[in-house]
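Project standup — Tuesday

K.O.: blocked on the structure for the chain from last sprint. Re-posting the sequence here as requested.
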Amino acid sequence: MAKPLEGVRVLEMGQLMAGPFAGTILAYYGAEVIKIEAPKTGDPVRTWRGVDSDGTSTWWRSLGRNKKCITVDLRTDEGRALARELAWKCDVVVENFKPGTMEKWKLGPEDIKAKNKDVIYCRVSGYGQTGPYSHKPGYASVCEGVGGFRYVNGFPDRPPCRPNLSLGDSLAGLHAALGIVMALYNRSGRAGREGGGSGQEIDVAIYESVFNMMEAVVPEFDRLGMVREREGSKLTGIVPTNTYRCKDGLYVIIGGNGDSIYKRLMTAAGRDDMASNPEYATNADRVRNEPAVDAALSEWTATLTAAEVVAKLEAAQVPVGSIYTVKDMLDDPHYQARGMFEEVEVGGRPLKIPAMTPKLSGTPGGTAWPGPEVGSHSVEVLKSILGKTDADIEALKAHGTI
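H.V.: unblocked you, prediction finished:
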């Protein structure tokens, strides 16, 4: 089947996670993504975390999927000129360097628009391209704090904590991909708005991508003076929704906060007295009596295994689930039925990588190849897009430009 972004050419300049994740999404759904990397070393992600027998991280095989990887030394005038030529031939440019870097290299939006006026130029940085913090280096770890996420994450009697993921980077990549797709739609003229047919700049900040996830914290504070605090495994103002320990030492998550669901939950837990008690009838009532509700559920789950709790509550139509490890995901029949894993070949051996979502019925995405080796597509791209000859390419190699 055709993919929705076929015919769109993207130049990805940057490294690590935020900008490249946007490129991964676009490539998965059919865009031709050309990734520029430093000669020899490539993107640092290639050697991060779990490394395969060939010295390349398994993460790279997922993050670099479907990308055409070329090497260009952007520290040289010749390398920057080559990148500029490529950008003039692309629909989209994605970069995640520190603000000001691309302008210094004469690869900024105005430099590209000089010969490619309809380019969509997406910039991903810690704090955005403007404002007093724009000059600061912005890793996801710090931006998750400034964006408000870290403050509400963790237990009230402990320091704020992070999940064992670069969540801010992933969120920024998602926002960048969304912005690019909206800009492409507008440029096509199908949006029926003024400005159709032209390119534009997209300014994505990691801290703002995190801030976008902060639900009602702003209006709650502005109108009511409320500051959302850390609640551990609970959710402020919603009862019951928590994580409970079971007899076998495993944990289950129970979401029984709907009024009718709460009644079914407490009945299944053998607490008819609490199911029918008007003091627990509404969420507001249960919030006032949260300790009693949580204590009752904790006492009940402690008498059963996690599997028994899940079975009983699923039979009662109460939202409940186990906390999965990656092994649980791979073994789970629902994950399998939904096609959430894809298999690629690396070094003559199969490797499972995650499928991507959303799922489109008519133009689905998919993985054509895993993250390739450094510079795998340099010759192909330079010949097919820029018309370079073999002699040109040999000269670029001799100069260390590629």
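K.O.: great, moving the ticket to review. The chain has two domains: 9-213+340-398, 241-322. The CA atoms of residues 254 and 305 lie 14 Å apart.
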